[in-house]
Design brief:
Blueprint: H1 4-14, E1 22-23, H2 24-40, H3 47-58, E2 65-66, H4 77-92, H5 102-108, H6 112-123
Parallel strand pairs: 1-2
Helix pairs in contact: 1-3, 2-4, 3-4, 4-6, 5-6
């Protein structure tokens, strides 16, 4: 069975999600791994991973999920995904991939945390 990373790459590249969707915990774990990899490698991420992260931001974090998705206290699940993807792109020094969608994201974000992150990234 393909890994969550491989499945997300396929979803972004070919718009093909797993039949049951993605597991919430697996997506969050992968986003954490990508951010950690970017930090550990001093900003290096594979091009396919950068594409996945940019795709998650551009698609407003709307990832087909299966099972229950816990609702965080401070932001909707889709915005958690966007937030984590942005943090990984920032760590990788690849915000250039999403610069054009940041203004819209800032206007449309429901959570103050995501709006603040976007504002900080726009000013950096």
């Amino acid at each position: 069975m393909p890994s969550t990373r491989e499945q997300l790459r396929r979803w972004v590249a070919e718009h093909e999600a797993p039949a049951r969707g993605f597991a919430w915990e697996a997506v969050l774990e992968l986003l954490g791994q990508m951010e950690a990899e970017a930090v550990a490698r001093a900003a290096a991420l594979e091009a396919e991973d950068v594409g996945v992260l940019a795709g998650l931001v551009a698609r407003r974090g709307r990832v087909p999920m299966h099972g229950l998705v816990p609702v965080p206290h401070c932001m909707p699940p889709e915005e958690v995904i966007q937030y984590r993807a942005l943090k990984a792109l920032e760590a990788a020094g690849r915000l250039d991939c999403v610069r054009e969608v940041l203004p819209q994201l800032r206007r449309e974000a429901d959570s103050p945390a995501l709006r603040d992150l976007v504002r900080q990234l726009q000013s950096s």
